[in-house]
Amino acid sequence: MEQKLLLHAEKIDKRFGPTHAVNEVSLDFLEGEVHALIGENGSGKSTFTNMLTGILPIGSGTFTLMGHDVAPKNQVDANHQGIAIVVQETGTLGGLSVADNMFLGDEDQFIRRGIKDTAAMNRKAQELLDAYGLGYIKATSIIDNYDFEDRKLVEIVKSTWFDPAVLVIDETTTALSQKGRDKLFEVMDHVRELGHCVIFISHDMGEVLKMADRISILRDGDFVTTVNREDVDEDQLKTLMVGRQMDDHYYRTDYPDYAREQPGETAVSVRGVTVPGMIDDISFDLHRGEILGIGGLSECGMHEVGKAIFGASYDRTGEVVLADGTKVKDINTAIDHSIAYASKDRDNESLLINDTIEDNIALPSMRDMGRVLSDKKLREFSDKYAVLMSTKMVSVNQYVSALSGGNKQKVVLARWLGKQSDILVLDSPTRGIDIKVKAAIYALLEQMRKENKAILIISEEIMELLGMCDRIFVMKDGKINGELTRSPELSEQDLISKMV
Amino acid sequence: MTTSNDTAIDPKTTAIDDKKKDAFAARIRGFLPLIGFVVILGFFAIATGGSILTPKNITLILSGGYMLMIAACGVWLIMTMGCLDFSQGSMLGVSCAVFCALSQYNLVLAILGGIATGGVIGAINAYFHVYRQIQSFVVTMCVMFLLRGVCAFITTTSPVYAATYVTTFNDMTLLMGITLAVLVITYVVTRFTSIGHNLKAIGANEKAARFAGIKVQKTKVIVYIVAGCLTGFAAFINAIKVGSVTSTAGNMLETQLLIAMVLGGMPINGGARARFSNIVIGVLSYLILQKGLVMMGFTTEIQQLILGVVFIIMVALFSDRSSNQVIK
Amino acid sequence: MELIKRARQSQWYGVGLLLIVTALVWLVFKAMCPSTFGDPDQLLTYLQTGLIYAVGGCGLYFIVVMGLWDFSIGSVLVLSCLMAIGFSQSMGILGLIVAPILCGALLGAANGLAYIKLRIPSLIVTVGLSLIYESLSVFASGWSGTRLGDAYKMFGSYPWNLILAVLAFALCTFILKYTKLGTYVNAIGANEATAKNMGVNVDKYKFLAFVLCSTFVGIMAILYIGYGTAQTPMTGMLSQSLNFKPLMGTFFGLAFKKYGHPVAAIVIGEFIISMMFAGFVALGMPVTINNVVTGATLLAIICITTKRIKGAVVK
């Protein structure tokens, strides 16, 4: 059966600084299909659809929908052009009624001479909710009265009631119960029946194989291939998702015989750490002289583990214990006991963007320099470590905001080098960084490992974990789902199978 | 062929151009307060036919400024963190009343009493701001009002008089010496210990400062208390000059301090661009501006009008903001 | 239990709660000074003053619900009152009503414009502008005089003050429920970034909110000057004292927003506050303590209505 072309993406491209998020991706979407878009974290699928739905401006390239080029300026603009999206996070606004949320940005249809016919809006909203089988949700009620799932269902109604030509479902299923998912699939089927297209982003291979007609795979911003559902199974999909060339120019090249070697002494013990809603009963030990990795999908909770070790978690139960018995409960205890932390949110947590390089490097070490701090002492200190990291800068008095991503990360590492930290917790250490700096960071980490420091890398980049870590924990849904040991035979499939 | 809803610019080159422009603008901005001071001085020197520069007038200007200078040190500490303190005026009034009352017994006790009063009020400010998470401006505005009532109540029947010996201290060398001492101590402490860096970090990004090991809550509490103590000490100077406390004591002090800080180039959100020179240049600029306006014969309302306009222009000029920030 | 649960869901739960608090406050003060407080005609007086501030509180609501501040309303009130005095002399009733409202609208536009264009925090820009408005009020009083003509005092008493106030409340409710502006100020307050992404022109609606806020202050001025009959210009930040009472009402409105009737909450809240102040006076509290109570009350109200989130950055 020949299906007509509905949406054509031609060489869609997007960069964020040095990161090439989407690399001239061209794709075809047909009428009457559910088209899944899969790939790892950072493969570009969300960026791609965000450009289609008006959340991000298009870098370069064209989207052609039913013969017309489209470049929406925002979500409501996209809706008017027949494109809709249901996002992963909360897309409804608290304090407004269900009806208000449903028609936010689109109230003009109810406005006559400046007056909003709220009764008509409420009526229409309720009609729509009833038509979707969601009549238990009251249109006049404040949306805060409903839980995340019901609010998400309202978003689904909001995005589909006008029969969009293209509906994007961006990893929405992960947060829904079975009931919610079933409702979503119902809606997806309906859209397909109407001869429109659903772009379905999901990490759940089972769902993908159940719902999708065709599946496109992206990897590192590149388009890999499109397959028909009948022609593949789960394992083949996972293989397609990964399967890159192992670029071992900058990763470690040694493969220690772990069976024979003694693990180094324990630096940090994580015992039964739980953060409600994020991680559940995590326990492991981090040893000196090892690089431990934690991997998983973005929402698996691994980022919170890093914060927990650094003492930066609120509502944390369980213990983080150091070798000398000290319990880490707050950031200052962590820092004073030689723990370093580089956050995934570099610009807001790891660094003070609107402050000098000198301050950024020297701050935690100032307490070790005695009561009196001379400018000269500080400058020499920060200069020493900035230069050690080969930071490209004009002087340490420059503001960090002026540096590139790679150099920013160098400042972060310079800070902890200066503090002589022995335990490093690095979350997404090479995210958004160019290759040269990546190589330098890996070399540094390898050197630190030889100096018997304890290193924990939390990363969404599978290759990085495979290339650098002695042991890798894979987390899924807040729990540790598997432990893998470094070896030449260890492959991406082994990790992905535990992540998804 | 590209269709995109921003024009096809290479993001890298615009980023570099923007950074160069920002750096240049930042250098200019660094000198603006000093330039502003010179301009103000020059303008009023001409407008008053040079009489503003006579020794008598300079003395007058300075003598009105000791209190302002001392209190400004405390406010500078608070503003560097990105917070505000609007209770300074009535804090001064109440501290002064305590001082005057205690001065009948013992000078040292009185000075300590004034300082302690300021400190307690600062602690109250800190409590509501840090632990109840209410914006500093709102907290201090409410406390300002509350204290104004307290001050009015204390002085219902009559002003509170300081002991007669107090006004004998009104000697320029002594007062100038005290003020300079406070300035020097503040400078030394913020420049040569980690405190100055910590405050700037909190102003730059409170969250990141926390991650860098700064005890943000504790620092805020200490700073508010110290600022209160400094104002309590400034109350001592006020008592020396005025000799008593009426219900309007310290009125408008917080506004004067705010304008002075802004004239000195302090960014309204604090942070790393705050400099000690904000205090000195700011207060001096303000004193000359105010005195100059008086000397030019402007009525109080026109003075206030000009101050208001100058204030808004200066805040806009020195604001240290990135374009994507959500400004409330 | 079931009854309470169902009552909670009802739209009128918030209002009901407030009415209970009102009754309680009345009871407490009545018990403490049975002879000097709480008679029906006194209640009418409390209501009268409460209504005036409630109109201001309604206007301020548009601003505060977005997370912004407007500390210029005191000075706008003074200037609007003087406009009313001045224009009533030349244009009669028309001047009395139109002048302060227009004055409020213009000053609100100035506030909005300054805030949008200068990109500085709203509380700083409105404090700065209040300095300017205060000085303008001196010039205005030079032209208009400070006493309202006897013929124009009708808005200071029943029934005209009630009629005007109710009209103002109706207008506020209408805007909140039946216009885009009403929806958008709530949206911007909930999440500015998401609202922007839905195509809401955030700058435009912030500007309009400032205009609206000061326009309501202009309406408040008609009631205020009718009641007080005279208004002197205020300088030296003295007009800041006029900000507090309306702001208290606004916070009542905010706290009860989720029950769906913020305007009712503002009005009842102002009534409670009026009663409280009258109660203190009946208890023999000296006038000077007024300010202490005002400052403490606003602080307490904000304290109670502010949600604390762990690790939030508050400046």
Give a description of the structure.
The complex is a heterotrimer of chains A (500), B (328) and C (315). By secondary structure, chain A is an alpha/beta fold. Chain A has helices spanning 45-52, 75-80, 98-102, 118-131, 148-160, 178-193, 205-211, 234-241, 302-310, 331-336, 346-350, 357-362, 375-388, 405-418, 435-450, 462-468, 492-499; strands spanning 5-16, 19-30, 33-38, 60-65, 68-70, 83-86, 111-112, 115-116, 166-170, 197-201, 214-219, 222-228, 266-275, 279-287, 291-296, 317-322, 339-342, 423-427, 454-458, 471-476, 479-485. The longest helix of chain A has 16 residues, at 178-193. The mean pLDDT of chain A is 89. With 315 residues, chain C is mainly alpha-helical. Chain C has a single domain (43-283), classed as ABC transporter involved in vitamin B12 uptake, BtuC (Orthogonal Bundle). At the B-C interface, helix 6 and helix 13 of B face helix 5 and helix 12 of C.
Summary keywords:
heterotrimer; A: Rossmann fold; Rossmann fold; 2 domains; six-stranded mixed beta sheet; 17 helices; B: 328 residues; ABC transporter involved in vitamin B12 uptake, BtuC; 2 strands; disordered N terminus
